[in-house]
Amino acid sequence: MRCPFCHESNDSVVDTRVIHDQTVIRRRRECNNCHKRFTTYERIEAVPVMVLKRENRLEEYDRGKAKSGLVKSLQKRHVTPESVNAVLDDLEKMIEDKSMKQITSREIGEFIMNRLKNLDQVAYVRFASVYKDFKTVDEFMGELSKLLDRKSD
């Protein structure tokens, strides 16, 4: 580490603290040449997860985009924001646990639909209608029939 004052690379760490939910380390350093103190921060550099879209283009995973689709399907439903965040947290944990660097939009959609089935069935149907891109009422009714069959089991 170079001193910002004299540009020497010989320093000592005086103090170390973990901050920001234990994701950042703050180090207080002292230059061994000019004896001035300065602060550095260390954080883990996360490798972005890429989403392979239906059109075969890649884009970086965006929690806000996933949340937007989920929230739209839950409009005027009695589901807490904590439940929405839990679905997204579980999705990100699944991606992290599998050490995935790339995931398809289909996998994301299927994961969210499976969670919505148990969370709110109306929201599930709303999400499925957009995600599965129903073209006819018969396709829509087919999905509703599957849901009703599952419920009667």
Strand content: 15-25%
Helix content: 40-55%
Q: Judging from the principal axes of the Cα atoms, what is the shape?
A: elongated
Secondary structure category: alpha+beta
Biggest sheet statistics: 3 strands, antiparallel
Describe the structure.
The chain is α+β, with helices and mostly antiparallel strands. A three-stranded antiparallel sheet has the order 1-2-3, with no helix packed on it. The protein has helices at about 65-75, 80-95, 105-120, 120-130, 135-150; strands at about 10-20, 25-30, 35-45, 50, 60, 100-105. The longest helix is centred in the middle third of the chain and has 17 residues, at about 80-95. It folds into two domains: about 10-45; about 50-150, no CATH class. It starts with 10 loop residues before the first strand and ends with a helix.
